Amino acid sequence: MGKIAFLFPGQGSQTVGMAKDAAEHDDRARAVIAEADKRLGFALSKLMFNGPQEELTLTYNAQPALLTASIALLQLVDGAGLKADYVAGHSLGEYTALVAAGAMSFADAVYAVRRRGELMDEAVPAGEGTMAAVLGMDADALEAVTNEIAAQGDPVEPANFNCPGQIVISGSKAGVEKAAQLLKERGAKRVIPLEVSGPFHSALMKPAAEKLKAVLDSLVIRDAVIPVVANVTAEPVTKKEDIARLLIEQLYSPVRWEQSVRTLLSLGVDTFVEIGPGKVLSGLVKKIDRNARVYAVNDLASFEAAVAALKGE
């Protein structure tokens, strides 16, 4: 059998009720959620389980909530004896991957992403920056357009290379709107505005990155026990110095997700287990390699199905 990678989702996958059945069923999952409440000093669990969705979606709530839900679900996977050869996470999910890889404690990571959310929120006032998904356009043609608009003074740039034909752009509201118009004229199939509160993974996030460095410097980051494929480089990292540097760069650099999955495939991974709410990453992996075996563990039932399939092999 080939190698296994665990994948952890990012913002956009949050849903009210996430990880609730895991917490009800599993003591360790429940303990993870209680630890988040304690470290953050407020009832994150209440927001995760009961909503409202609008409040859960605010970046400084969504980030710790997704990390907590994913690590709670990881307790089930660990308990079943499933182990990863590699881990990766999309944007915020990279912090979850670092917890899974032993590079950060859960308590430190949940605090770090709460601060990361607050800093991202403060970097650009709400409504001044945004993001949009561009479908059906290759990277070179897309970058020609974003460079052209940015050169006219409205910041916009590629933010996530998700899978073939799906690239997210990020920048000022005007930059993204102008780029969207020009991209459609130049052959993009669709441009879909995203429900986000800011221009994440763009140069507009550099002020937040400076402050994030101070947060990360106050926490303990260790060498990873399991190699983590980093968003910024799409290469595996294990050294703590590299991990810390890349987390800061990640805030204003594109997420090279398609390339990260291709790196994992080239390292011999043939089975991907997405651990956390939703199944966004599972869908992206399938678009990158339709022969990959992909399982999404987002609740108790999907966990049991994945274990049965993986143990049966």
Describe what this molecule looks like in 3D.
The protein has 313 residues and is α/β, with parallel strands linked by helices. The protein is 51% helix and 17% strand. The strands form three sheets. It has a four-stranded parallel β-sheet, with helices on both faces. It has a four-stranded antiparallel β-sheet with strand order 4-5-3-6. A two-stranded antiparallel sheet has the order 7-8. A hairpin with a 2-residue loop joins β4 (156-163) and β5 (166-172). α5 (59-79) packs antiparallel against α7 and α10 (206-217) runs antiparallel to α11. The longest helix has 21 residues, at 59-79. It starts with a strand and ends with a helix.
Helix-strand layout with pairing:
Elements: E1 3-8, H1 20-25, H2 27-40, H3 44-50, H4 53-57, H5 59-79, E2 86-89, H6 93-100, H7 106-123, E3 129-135, H8 139-151, E4 156-163, E5 166-172, H9 173-185, E6 190-193, H10 206-217, E7 228-229, E8 236-237, H11 240-250, H12 257-266, E9 269-275, H13 280-288, E10 293-297, H14 300-311
Parallel strand pairs: 1-2, 1-9, 9-10
Antiparallel strand pairs: 3-5, 3-6, 4-5, 7-8
